[in-house]
């Protein structure tokens, strides 16, 4: 399976599992900001899902 297709399948499965159909709702988390330093200006952020003891976070 091609890597892009595998990532799409994993993302679809995560969204489907996170819809809350099995009871407890998923709590999305969003974060972001802008940093200024001696090397210039840069942006950062991330998204996450929390459900019970499971936490998934993707930073960029």
Helical amount: 25-40%
Major β-sheet profile = 3 strands, antiparallel
- With strands numbered from the N-terminus, the spatial order across the biggest sheet is 1-2-3
Q: Could you say how many structural domains there are in total?
A: 1
Q: What is the number of beta strands?
A: 3
Contiguous runs where pLDDT drops below 50 for at least 5 residues: none
Principal-axis shape: flat
- In angstroms, what is the radius of gyration? 16 Å
Mean pLDDT: 79
Instruction: Name the beta content range.
Output: over 45%
Total helical segments? 1
Structural class, from helix and strand content? alpha+beta
The H/E string reads HEEE
Task: Report how far the terminal alpha carbons are from each other.
Answer: 25 Å
Features:
single chain, 60 residues, alpha+beta, three-stranded antiparallel beta sheet, 1 helix, 3 strands, 25% helix, Lipoprotein
Provide an overview of this structure:
This protein has 60 residues and is of the alpha+beta class. The protein has one domain. The protein is 25% helix and 48% strand. The chain is built from one helix and three strands; from the N terminus they run αβββ. A hairpin with a 2-residue loop joins strand 2 and strand 3. The chain is flat. The two termini are 25 Å apart. This is Lipoprotein. Keywords: Signal. It comes from Lutimaribacter marinistellae.
Task: Present the secondary structure layout.
Elements: H1 3-17, E1 27-37, E2 40-51, E3 54-59
Antiparallel strand pairs: 1-2, 2-3
Protein name: Lipoprotein
Keywords: Signal
Signal peptide: 1-17
